[in-house]
Design goal:
Elements (H helix, E strand, L loop, with lengths): L1 E6 L2 E4 L4 E9 L3 E9 L7 E6 L5 E3 L7 E6 L4 E6 L8 E13 L2 E8 L3 E6 L1
Parallel strand pairs: 2-11
Antiparallel strand pairs: 1-3, 3-8, 4-5, 4-9, 5-6, 7-8, 9-10, 9-11
């Protein structure tokens, strides 16, 4: 019911910038929280940044001051502006969305994941 398409990943040199995008589509009633995660070691996805439906944001300590998360509700799109990239930022970045969907006679909130986009930062 919800499909997420990510784009904007790539390879940059240390100190460079990238902007990731995530577009949600489907038959959901609305989109609540949206966030970016990265794979990290041990197959444990870690929060990079999250933004609520009202625009409240939270960042991992490692990216504060360098990354900015934003969303365009009219376009069902979320962005992650990444500045001052470091080699340590190299990872696969995943879009995550909490959406309210219709299930028969009631609604339910569900989590959805994008397939991930590779970010590589060379030193």
């Amino acid at each position: 019911q919800v499909q997420l398409v990510e784009s904007g990943g790539g390879k940059v040199q240390a100190g460079g910038s990238l902007r990731l995008s995530c577009v949600a589509s489907g038959t959901f009633i609305n989109i609540n929280d949206m966030g970016w995660y990265r794979q990290g070691p041990g197959n444990q996805r870690a929060l990079v940044a999250v933004i609520t439906s009202t625009g409240s944001t939270t960042y991992a300590d490692s990216v504060k001051g360098r990354f900015t998360i934003s969303r365009d509700n009219a376009k069902n799109t979320m962005y992650l502006q990444m500045n001052g990239l470091k080699p340590e930022d190299t990872d696969v970045y995943f879009c995550n969305v909490v959406a309210t969907i219709r299930q028969f006679l009631h609604t339910s909130d569900r989590n959805y994941w994008g397939q991930g986009t590779q970010v590589t930062v060379s030193s």
